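Researcher: I need the complex structure. Ligand is zinc ion. Inputs:
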Amino acid sequence: MKSMLPLTVVLLALAGCGGTLSDAGSTEVQFDGERALRAVQAQLDFGPRVPGSRGHADCARWMIDYLGQYADSVAADRWTHITASGDSLPLVNITASFNPGQRRRVLLCAHWDTRPRAEHDPDSSRRASPIPGANDGGSGVAVLLELARVLAANRPQVGVDLVLFDGEDYGDFTASTDVLLGSTRFARQNSRYRPRLGILLDMVGDSTARFPYEGHSYSRFRADVELVWNTAHELGYGRHFPRQSGGYVIDDHIPLIQAGIRCMDIIQMGLPYWHTHGDDIDKLSAATLEAVGRTMAAVVRNIAE
Ligand SMILES: [Zn+2]
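Model: Output:
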C-alpha cells in the first residue's frame, strides 16, 4: 500500500468540519475540493480497487464507515459474480441515503472499482497490471464522499441517494462482458425506483476537465441536463460544462435508463491517460472536484424548489 501520509492522518483530515458564512449569514458548509482530493488519495492508498483484491475489500470497508458518519442510512449490497472466464468476483454496491422517507429523490452515483489492466498503456510490459484509477473510479467517489459531509451539515429538503457501483470496469466493453455489473444489479433490484433526477459521475477530476453533453443523457433528459449545466454556469464553472454535444458513451447510466431510472452521465472522455498507469493523482485538481461538487450541491438545493 503506497502512502503519502499515514492513513489515519488522511482519514482524520477528512473528518474535520469547516463552515463558511453564506450570503444569508447562516453558517453553511461548503463542498471543499481539497478534502475531495484527499479522498482520492485515501482510495489510492489502498492500492488498485480491483474486485477480489485486498485493496478493494479494505476500501469498501473504509467507504462504508466514512459514509456511516454522515448519511441517515448506509446499505452494502454484496454478491458474487461469475465472470465469462469462470472467475468468481466478490462485489458490493454501497448506498448512502439522506431523508430515506422522502418521495422526491435525487440519485448521485459513481463506480468505485478500478480496472484490473492498463490496455492503453504506452508501455506494453505494463498492460497486464491494474491502473491506479485516480480519475477513473477515484474522482467520482471522492465527490460523493465529500458531498455526504456537506449534505449532513446542510440537510437537503429532498431525499438523496449516493450510490457507489462496483464492477463497472472489470471486463470487456466491446463484447459487453463483465462490465457495468453493479449498475445492472442495482437497476434489476430497484426497478420501481424513480428519482426525480439522476446523475452519474465518471472521470470528473482532471485539472483540464470539460464535460460536453453526453449523447444518451441529452437526447433523453435534455431539461435535466440543461438544469445541471445552467447551475454550473451560474456558479462560474461554465468552462468545465461547455454547452456542446459530446459523444454517446456506454457507462453505468445505461442499465439504469433501460430500467426506467432517469440518469444522466457527466464524464470526460478522450483523456490520453485513460486505462493507463498515467491515471494518477497528478492529473487531478481540487478546483475541478470543487466545481463538480458545488454544482451537485446546488442542484440538490434547487431541485427541492
Ligand atoms: Zn474505466
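Model: Summary of the prediction. Residues 115, 136, 169, 275 surround zinc ion (CB under 6 Å).
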